[in-house]
Predict the 3D structure of the following.
Amino acid sequence: MINRLRRLQRLLRCHPRTVDVLIAAALLACSFPGSVMTLPGRALEVPWWPGVLVAGVGSVALLWRRTLPRTTVVVTLCCAMAVATLGYILTVLVIGPLMVALYTLARGSDRTTANLFTVSGIALLLGTALVVGPDTEPLVLKLVGPVFWLLLPTSLGTTTRLRAACLEAVRARADHAERTREKEARHRVTEERMRIARDLHDVVAHHLVLANLQAGTVVRLMRTRPEEAERIAGELAGTTLSAVRELKATVGLLRHADDSDTPSGPAPGLAQLAELVASFEPAGLTVTVNTEGRPRPLSAGADLTAYRIVQEALTNVTKHAGTGSAEVRLSYAHDRLSITVTDHGGTAVPSSPSSGSGYGVIGMRERALSAGGRLRAGHRPEGGFEVVTELPLPPHSQDPSEAHNQNALA
């Protein structure tokens, strides 16, 4: 039954002209009993055909109610006033065209326009009925009936319009939410791809540079210092093994989250800074680490960012600076950690651009921004290259000893 009603609604919605013709024919048929209706115990004082004729004009005017709603209301109102002038009782059977016209106007226009036409129509119709209408009709019937029958379609039309607007707003919000969700999903996928690309770049660049330098050293020392060459070859195996391990952990992020066969392992951070610094010694780079302030833990994302930035900066020193020493300075402040990687340059001409561009520097800057920090890189006036990163520190509770001392001073 419900499916049949839905099919009927779709059919009527697809043929609005047919609906208008059917409504006009139904209202014209209703005008026949309406034109012969009298009060109980009283005879018909006017012939029936003028009422049917006037109601027929109003019914025909409804054929233009969708395109000319205001004009249709005016025409049907004039027909209703003519019916009242002829002395017919103003029932729904004779003023039906005016009711349909008011409903259409209220549904398709704003509330102010619908109310204005309705109030004006009620005033004109009541005035006509009171001035030129039959004196034998009770006053209550003249006033209550037309007011109720004209307010009803206006209220229904306004309610229908508001309901349609509400449904449209809900549909628009749902569409917007769907588009926003898809856009956010694409944005997250893009960010994840960029993050993994930066990790791959850092891991590959770091280990391949070290492996290349160690391999070159092994070739040079193989004849003159075979023991030293053998030791460096062993370190080369450790470097490649570490590269494979980090690549496996990074590429493993691309696997499905439910795949438990590939353990992810802990992400590197500043806790592994000593191991990172030691990995550059076979490449001939001596790194000094200085810490200022009381060390505090970073968030997981910021800790990984700090590690990768130091790794990339030291790798760039190994490739471009032409020097055998570098310095890493960690400065802990109240709410920020400042990381400075400095080299003093060498005899080789640095290949890193002075403006701090290049994919390595761009990747470091993107990492710092993603963690809520900032990064600047460039040549130092006294020589060498410097990378300075500032990362936010998470808020921490006050140390109990400090709180005790402050309370004692207070």
Remarks:
- Residues 379 and 385 are 4 Å apart (CA to CA).
- The first helix runs from residue 2 to 14.
- Residues 2-176 form one domain.
- The radius of gyration is 44 Å.
